[in-house]
Amino acid sequence: MGGSRRQIKKRQQDVVRFLEANRIEFEEVDITMSEEKRQWMYKNIPEDRQPAQGNPLPPQIFSDDRYCGDYDCFFESKESNTVFSFLGLKPSLAPKES
Question: Is the pLDDT of residue 83 over 60?
């Protein structure tokens, strides 16, 4: 069941790349390095969003303490251009040119 480590890594990179490209501030948390952070993540994913079996796999996306969703939710919001509302952010209206 679940994704391979390589698939998880790729999904994490997808999310990180998107956030960086859109200049969205974020903190990447590696739950493999911290039991405390892993427990926090499990505890803060709503009951109805937990997988039927086993633990939720990273990446899981939070905005502060508010659960946004997993990679599939993120991907759907990216496809439908609703990532900002998915993340609970206001779209940045900064001009594109630098």
Answer: yes
